[in-house]
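pasting for ref
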Amino acid sequence: MRVECEHGSETKWHQQHSSPHCSTRSKVCPCLDRRRVVLRTPEVTCRRASEVLLKTSTFIRNLPSFYHMPWEDQFVLIQQNWAPLFVVGMAQEGVDFDLREIPATSLLKKILLNQSSTARNERGSSSAGASLAEVQKMKNLLWKFWDLDLSAKEYAYLKGIILFNPGLLANFWGFQEAQKALMEFISTMFHGSLGRFAWILQLITSLRDIDADAIEELFFRPILGEATLNVLLIETLYIKPGWL
């Protein structure tokens, strides 16, 4: 995995990238927040990301616990949880990606050319790229999931736990059921040891730190343009338009 600069030289990932065991909560150099990156092969990666998003939507739509919820509750769950669910989907599908860095001078040229903010908004934010710090956090999480080598059932239970976030709704029966199922499955498969279960729960906490805007900017802005991913997800899941 690497980030490539437009002028041809390569910059190495922060040391966190080299180990799947590194902490996503580790302090990151503030300069990474200012560095912007885009996909090195967007035509390939965006297609795979779209496939992950579609599979995620299909998974959600086929959950009876979700399907029978009120429209407004469905809307809240999707709006708040699509990003961590997408990252889990990327991990399950084994989607890795390379990046190239946008030179800071390109932003300076815009200022020197006295381009208006209106003109920049009309072109959208695709040229601005995503924060390297945020993308780095996501890559770290992907490696952690791959290191655990989760089974299909573990991924399914994990998605249920994430979707039915007890912090969003008063009724979190779906959350309790998914968490119980995951714990029982791990206990059976790993001879009663729940260390793996605790590690997965820790990853769920880290997933909450993922920036949804960075995901949208990196994987979907090149194909969506000015469209909003939240709206696309709602339409895909056939949720009542009146709640948009």
